[in-house]
Amino acid sequence: MTSASASVDAETAAMPREDFTPFEAVNFQFDRAADLLDLSEAMRVALKTPYREVMVEIPVICEAGDLRTFRGYRVQHNLARGPMKGGLRYHPEVDLDEARALASLMTWKTAVVDLPYGGAKGGIDCDPRDPGLSQRDLESITRTFVDRLQVFIGPNQDIPAPDVNTNAQVMAWIVDEYSKFHGFTPGVVTGKPIALGGSEGRESATGRGVAVVASHASKDLGLDLEGATVAIQGFGNVGSWSARFLADMGARVVAVSDVDGAIFDGDGLDLASVTEVVAAQGSVVHAEGVASISNEDLLALDVDVLVPAALGHVIHGGNARHVRARLIVEGGNAPVTPVADEILAERGIPVVPDILANAGGVTVSYFEWVQNLQQFRWGADRVDQELVATLERAYRTVREVAEAKKVSLRTAAFILAIRRVARATELRGFRSGPHMPTGQR
Ligand code: NAD
How many angstroms does the Cα of residue 424 sit away from the middle of ligand 1? Predict the structure, then answer.
């Protein structure tokens, strides 16, 4: 099923509400910035409305013999600046509204770091931890999804990538299935295994980017990362690599967590052994010689830097007053609700927003796609150097906008992104009256 539009409330929301849907929450942040840009009403609606939404049925006969049906989604939010780009999430709570929210965040994220992309996101409402689903079943689910989606994706159209509960293996299945229809096309997804056209440095890219922006934001706060304490919620791709890079910079990672619980060691966790435990037993909670705490306790720890790197809306109106960190760096997407954002701002706790903090992943995805199109491989050093340079440039520009406009880093990042997408939209021929921010970048 496809539909070209989603209902978007064109009204500017003045006050954040705790019952915002994920898409409303992103649009609230959008409107904050659009107000400061004096963006016309027509352009606001154009920029908020998804370009295309695809929802498919995925029936699969599981290895256990039962027939199960899942729903797959792909929301393509905006393509003014280039092909659409964004992850694929496998999680029972995946739905259309969440996909819209995450797709729109991708539009703003690719614009903040100035990549020639638009935004998209998708997923399947399956649970890879379900003991009733084998690896083979996940492969069948992925292939059926691709069969139904393949006309809408491609290297010049929409390029998926890993997100929660998807990884390089899932991307490899997508390359194989898509190539049956279109010929060998590694550039249809990024985050692939290196043996199948993936890039050096992609797996660690989001975490490396989180650490890079965390170090700059800490410096701006007068906080030395050397010896600073860090708590990280989520120990998957983003959380575990963020932990490793922050530790390499001299920080003391005192707490990490996953869906099963959290662990704490005030002297700093032995990350290599936690990683081994996760590989062998599936969760950080099996680590020995550390204290067990809850995920909620982790968010309230007295640390210098808190990195929420799991799911959305985990810091909300109900717990934002308990946060004691000096700085929050959003490793995951949308971990802080708009209500929590206000509370944290009142309390003087800066938040480095997702669309800047976790943009390292899509940045190296861009490098991977470029390598696929050019059929020329880059070395790891080149990837890492270009990633760091891209994020440092984006961080500096966002900070300049924040200082000039006296706004938060989040609003500044949205201002920068909206200007860029609005400008591209205008250049493509969309005219919306005298309030367009013509000529600004
Ligand atoms: P992942 O599946 O590799 O890891 C997710 C982690 O979160 C796991 O450790 C899981 O156990 C944990 N988790 C899940 N529910 C939890 C809960 N209720 N409490 C605590 N921990 C919980 O996923 P990922 O790729 O690391 O993505 C994490 C976040 O980062 C998501 O918001 C994703 O959209 C965002 N992100 C990912 C990338 C990327 O390159 N993978 C890029 C940008 C943003």
Answer: 32
